[in-house]
Amino acid sequence: MSCAGCEQIPKLPGSAGHLWLALPLEHSRTKLLGTLRTAADWSHRCDEHGHVIIDVGAGQLESVLNQLGNWLSITETQHTKALFLAPGRIADLGVLAEVEPLARWIGLAQGQWLADMLENQRLTMHFQPIVLASDPSRAYAHECLLRGVDDQGRMVAPNALFAAARSAELLFHLDRAARLTAVNTAERLNLATPIFINFTPTAIYDPAFCLRTTIAAAQRTGWAPERFVFEVVETEELANTRDLVAILAEYRAAGFRVALDDLGAGYGSLTLLERLHPDIVKFDRELITEIDHSPSRQAIVTALVGMARQLGIATVGEGVETRAEWEWLREAGVDYVQGFLFARPANPPPALSNDWHHCS
Predict the structure, then answer these.
(1) Tens digit of each residue's pLDDT (9 = 90 or more) over 254-273
(2) Quick one: average pLDDT of 72-76?
(3) Domain co-membership, 37 together with 92
(4) For the chain, what is the domain count?
């Protein structure tokens, strides 16, 4: 069971209509009207309440919004209320729910390429091995790493995807599509190891409802539930842990394991360690880089390994790029390691490198 909001990708209206703008200050309204008179050939006017109304032709809303984003400051777009009405519709209480900050409309205009990518299911996964620290020739698991494919067949990096998703308020749709793509791609490739699937907690509204499709997709594979490890990312954006506790409870009720990413990235991560008691923690790559040369980082990771061991939590050092980093982590008692030293992400999953064995 799913809702229309889950399945329908938000897109800009393509019809002609009227864009209503309620600007936050008289100064902003005067500035915009002056710009419209001198720099645009759009028909526009003001109503009796001081709202600016711009007539938009069919297929022109995207360009109008992008131009408004150039003319107004970011703060002005965030505080300007906007509403698009097709011909024949009037601005009454029935359309109140459609009023959004202009910044959201502009973000959606700038993110139309992402909406199109989601609508046409042009997402793929690359896989990076997570190996045993004691023997990097053995893959313990694979992390699923999202990539987009643009309309020219070129890869789009995840940071570009998620930046666009936040601006266009498509984060829920992207995060959901990424989870489903990870499960379906891993099944198609018949991966023999557990898979780590990233998810953004702030993209999930109601865990009991929003995670149904992800849980159902994982169950359809017929794999043992513990082969799925759902990895919490971007914990620094959480206002509190209540919702995250509910999300992880939903995953655990289905028999899945959970991992906490970037342990050590901020004070909040230690609070999460105690509150969530994840099955696995990953150390922030900023701690791992050149750890063999940094006594302060060594002290921090040694303490974190000790805490995790006392709590029965497995540990992963990620971002490992040198033999010296790996050797230090192995001697410190880290359970698993991940990084370019062992393999770069790829689809299908890459063979493990022997570089760790030869480099100095």
Answers:
(1) 999 999 887 766 545 677 77
(2) 94
(3) yes
(4) 2
